Amino acid sequence: MSVTAKTLSLHLGLIAVLFALQFILGPYQQGNIARIMVLATYAIGYNVLFGYTGLLSLGHAMFFCAGMYGLAIPMYHFSVPAELAFLMALAIGAGFSLLVGLLALRTIGVAFMIVTLMFAQAVYLIILYAAEWTRGDEGFVLVQSTRTLFGVDLTDDTAKYAAALVLFATALLFTLWLVRAPTGRVLIAVRENEDRASLLGYDIHRHKLIAVVISGTISAAAGAGYALLFGNTGSTFATVQYSILPLLWVLLGGAGTVLGPFLGTLFMYYLIDYAADVTNAYMLIAGAALVALTLFAPTGIAGTVRKHLWRWLP
Amino acid sequence: MLEVRSINVAYGPVPVLRDLSLTANQGEILCLLGRNGAGKTTTMKAIMGLLPVTAGTVTFQGNTISNVPAHIVPTHGIGYIPQGRKLFGELTVAENLAVGLQTRKSPQRVMDAALDMFPALKTRLNQRSETLSGGEQTMLTVARALCVDPHLLLLDEPTEGLQPSMIKAIRDAILQLRRDGKAIILVEQRMDSVLAVADRVAFIEQGQIVETTDGDSLRANPSLLRARLGV
Fold first, then answer.
1. Which residues of A touch B128 (CB under 8 A)?
2. CA distance A14 to A173
3. Where are the domains of chain B?
């Protein structure tokens, strides 16, 4: 079997398994997987910038929130239909990430991390201060009757699961295409060795900017999807915690692998879920598990599989 | 083809190249020789736009390329193979070559020609480049630079740290490139390689070209190497 056939089989296989799971799982687990797929979409966006381009952002929650509020404010305040609001959220996410990229990419390394962190803090404060529009800390809930997409009621568990799967599958397959496309190869080349990529004739700044915009737009799509499917917004999603989480998911799953973000999100979500059943100090169990994984599989789950088993894993 | 005219280059306040001039012509190998710190690599970096030229000009095929951004220089048709291999390790051999091919949207035949020069790479196209041997990595570095389809190739110690069979493969490739009409500027520490391939030799001392001679004269009178380099 060729590498392309193996790659497609694996990724389409995962999508097929996720599709089938809705017929097996009960409502609670179905809801969990739907949430994981949306959050994994966020991690996929983060992975484009961190895993494939080598840029560590500490402020990605701003892109998630750009999508979340980019969809929710038009729907809540202006009764914009969900379809149009979702497109608006994508456009806002793309425009905002372009603006952030143009400014933040004037820095490199640690300075880039700090600048993205500060931008995200600014977004967090704007959400708090613009309470007239955002309802500040408590956020707002999208009215159930407005959460329909092409006539499908997204508050229905089955429809919610299907919509989350479509969002996740689109992001997954897009990333799979991207990393094998010419632009994706250059992003990897930039991560591996900026100077050599430049000496082959590539404008490093332009390619980093492309990565920021793609990453920010996918993250915004996840934010918009979250608001649409689960109905709630809030400044919590703009806190530094929501910028660190995708980093953790990607590191655990395997940075620079297409499946890594999903595996990391799945692992971390259920680790915390089950640990919380055992003790109130669930973060202690989660922390110990994370330390163990970091020690024994420093390249993450998919990274370790690639290293020892499937070298072709993209 | 390439004309470097009276350039000055400095690292901060420290001047490294002073009034340096040289030319590279189509179908010719120019070897740049000098002791450590004489300015050989700095000359290459200045041509490639990696260091600012504070005086003088660099022109290539009639276009001034001094002080243009480094990523623009290769699009004029200049390939540079710096010291050390440093491939894009996670990319396969084929993907490394494709990254080179994309630069000037070169046709597939350019990649095929590069692979013909290094047949050993043909069987490893789907292998991650970080898993290649040192010699194969050097071959891939050269092949990737060739995928840009350059008219001029700058090579900075391409045989450094290689076993004899690999050195011969790289040397044969350089001679083939000359036959194909490429201009080549070569920095090389191995004097046997220099004597084997050089059409012209320029000696650099303290950032200046102090003597230029043709390859035949050097082969007839290798004592010049001892006089200039102490080897």
1. 311
2. 11
3. 2-90+150-229
Beta-ladder partners of B214: B200
Between CA B30 and CA B200 the distance in angstroms is 5
Q: What is the DSSP letter of A280?
A: S
Every domain of chain A and the residues it spans: 16-240
DSSP assigned state of B15: E
Angle at B78 between CA B185 and CA B48, to 5 degrees: 80
The secondary structure of residue A142, as a DSSP letter, is -
Would you state the pLDDT for residue A264? Answer: 95
CB B60 within 8 A of CB B78: yes
The pLDDT tens digits for A124-175 are 999 999 999 999 888 888 888 888 888 888 889 999 999 999 999 999 999 9
Is A299 within 8 Å of chain B by CB? no
- A192 in contact with B, Cβ within 8 Å: yes
Contacts of B50 in chain A (CB under 8 A): 199
What pLDDT shows up at residue B85? 67
Own/partner pairs, B160-163, CB within 8 angstroms, 24+ separation:
B160/B83, B160/B189, B161/B134, B162/B134, B162/B135, B162/B138, B163/B135
Which DSSP string do the residues of A176-198 spell out, in sequence order? HHHHHSHHHHHHHHHHH-HHHHH
Please give the Cα distance from B7 to B90 (Å, whole number): 38
A308 touches B at CB < 8 Å: no
Interchain proximity B148–A196, CB inside 8 Å: no
Q: How close is the nearest chain B Cα to the Cα of A189, in Å? A: 6
Tell me whether residues B86 and A196 touch, CB distance under 8 A: yes
**Phi, then psi, of A140 in degrees rounded to 5:** -145, 165
Q: Which of B50, B88, B126 sits opposite A192 (nearest CB)?
A: B88
Q: What is the pLDDT of residues B32-71, one digit of tens each?
A: 999 888 999 999 999 999 999 999 999 999 999 998 999 9
**B99 vs A contacts (CB less than 8 Å):** 185-186, 189, 197, 200
Looking at residue B231, its pLDDT comes to 64
> How distant is the Cα of A268 from the closest Cα of chain B, in angstroms?
26
| Predicted ipTM of the assembly | 0.81
Domain B2-90+150-229: top CATH class: alpha beta
Contact residues for A111 (Cβ-Cβ < 8 A; gap 6+): none
